[in-house]
Automatic annotation (TrEMBL):
The protein, known as: Anchored repeat-type ABC transporter ATP-binding subunit
Molecular-function annotations in GO: ATP binding
Domain ABC transporter: 4-221
The organism of origin for this protein: Paractinoplanes aksuensis
Keywords: ATP-binding, Nucleotide-binding, Transport
Length: 240
């Protein structure tokens, strides 16, 4: 996306956002609450109007935050994945063999083929997240957008997902919004620091200046955030 500006409820949320994620890249989108991460993803999907700028994504798949998805309906795992194809099948049409095959292929990719007949309500949090990933993959998107995929998951489930995302990013572009800064710094190819606009972007090793993180997260030099990332402690007033 280039020069993107977007408003919500009449208030500016994003300004002059320039961002590019290439196939083969696993990028993290980092920023404080309200920084505009979800808005950026919705803008990338064409779900909100832009005040300025352009978005070129080819096809994009979106994995929403899990609490945005209704789990207490009696659908099976494969039905939930198939729902990712509604736009293609038509709301009241019956899916054809090719659609089922696409759903099963997507379930294979997230290692849930064995559970395809299971009601989604019976799945664990980590399994549910993988169902949502399969639902996004069923359209074979060029870009996969993940909105805080680790929330509420234990460490083993997070690791399984991280491995999965790394694998998916071999062929596609993956952009993941997350609050787990240390894990993102460790696992992602590139970090994008957002606070209404892109404050900085680069490989973890290129973002060692604590001033960048302080500006993005609006924290002081004593913040635990800097310690958690093992950044050098600033000795002089920053931005003076
Ligand atoms: N429908 C809306 N109408 C007006 N303002 C909104 C709307 N949705 C979000 N906002 C505001 O836009 C800003 C960015 O929100 P957004 O959800 O994109 O941030 P985020 O970085 O994803 O935050 P979080 O880390 O909390 O998920 C926030 O200040 C929020 O209050």
């Amino acid at each position: 996306m280039t020069g993107v500006a977007a408003d919500l409820g009449g208030r500016p949320v994003l300004r002059d956002v320039n961002l590019r994620v290439d196939a083969g890249e696993f990028a993290a989108l980092l920023g404080p609450n309200g920084a505009g991460k979800t808005t950026l993803m919705r803008a990338a999907l064409g779900l909100i109007p832009l005040r300025a700028g352009t978005v070129t994504t080819g096809s994009a798949g979106y994995v929403p935050q899990r609490h945005d998805f209704t789990w207490d309906f009696p659908a099976s795992v494969e039905d939930a994945v198939l729902s990712g194809l509604v736009g293609r099948i038509g709301l009241f049409r019956r899916p054809r063999v090719a659609h089922w095959q696409a759903a099963w292929h997507a379930l294979d990719q997230v290692h849930l083929a064995d559970l395809r007949k299971r009601p989604v309500g019976e799945l664990s949090g980590g399994q549910r997240q993988r169902v949502l990933v399969a639902r996004a993959l069923v359209l074979e998107p060029a870009v996969l957008l993940l909105d805080e995929p680790f929330t509420g998951l234990d460490m083993p489930a997070q690791e399984t997902l991280t491995e999965l995302f790394t694998h998916i990013a071999r062929e596609r572009a993956v952009l993941m919004a997350t609050h787990d800064l240390a894990a993102a710094a460790y696992t992602c190819d590139r970090l994008v620091l957002l606070n209404r606009t892109v404050v900085a972007a680069g490989r973890t090793a290129e973002l060692r200046d604590p001033a960048i993180w302080m500006r993005t997260f609006d924290v002081g030099p004593g913040s635990h955030l800097l310690k958690a990332l093992a950044l050098p402690v600033p000795t002089e007033p920053v931005g003076a």
